[in-house]
Design goal:
Elements: H1 2-18, H2 22-33, H3 35-38, H4 43-49, H5 55-73, H6 77-100, H7 126-140, H8 146-167, H9 172-188, H10 193-207
Helix pairs in contact: 1-9, 4-8, 5-6, 5-7, 6-7, 6-9, 7-8, 7-9, 8-9
Length: about 210
């Protein structure tokens, strides 16, 4: 049920920006407000904090830690789960980016600018979705303190999304869609565990030469 509701929410946000609904009015209102002009002291810190949602740095750090976990436990499950999650993330986010072709707030010359759907890749927010998936997977794979990890992962994903809005690099609707896309990936992981186990077993047999 949660998966279905999240999927519907994701679809509604996509339709909302394509059909120029009140959600787009909210996007423009925040863009015109320009939060970074009202609270400039936050900008140096948030310019650094937003890295917590960037694919490159977070993926490398997470994969290195999971590789160590895999070595200790002698199972590839941690790496397989993260790999599958990142692959699904590319599908759920990348395909919608191609379809919408939306540009970011910095390209908005005036309210209702027609060029906002002229080949961009800002929607949904990859920063936000990646933060949900990367930190969510680490919490999902945690052996101890999973609840604390889940809270920290949720707080990180929430703050990264809001940070991109503050910095003016994403519309509010970009972030809403990013949260939904990332959550969809996390919700797929538990039912996909048998597939992960089968792949892990097959790779282990191949390495033993069986």
């Amino acid at each position: 049920m949660v998966f279905g509701l999240t999927g519907i929410g994701y679809l509604l946000v996509v339709v909302g920006i394509l059909c120029d609904t009140p959600l787009v009015d909210l996007d423009w209102a925040i863009q015109q407000f320009r939060p970074y002009h009202h609270w400039p002291d936050l900008e140096p810190f948030l310019d650094v904090w937003v890295v917590a949602g960037q694919r490159g740095p977070t993926a490398v750090a997470a994969l290195l830690w999971l590789a160590w976990r895999s070595h200790r436990t002698r199972t590839l499950r941690p790496l397989l789960v993260m790999g599958m999650a990142l692959l699904l993330l590319n599908i759920t986010v990348g395909s919608v980016k191609i379809v919408t072709g939306r540009l970011g707030p910095h390209y908005a010359h005036y309210v209702g600018s027609p060029e906002l759907f002229s080949g961009g890749n800002i929607f949904p927010s990859g920063h936000t979705a990646n933060a949900v998936v990367t930190w969510g997977v680490l919490a999902y794979l945690a052996v101890r303190g999973r609840r604390v990890g889940a809270v920290l992962a949720a707080a990180t994903a929430l703050s990264v999304g809001l940070t991109t809005v503050y910095l003016g690099t994403h519309w509010v609707s970009d972030v809403l869609a990013g949260w939904a896309a990332g959550l969809l990936v996390l919700l797929v992981l538990p039912p996909a565990e048998p597939l992960v186990a089968a792949v892990d077993t097959r790779i282990a047999r191949w390495r033993r030469g069986e």
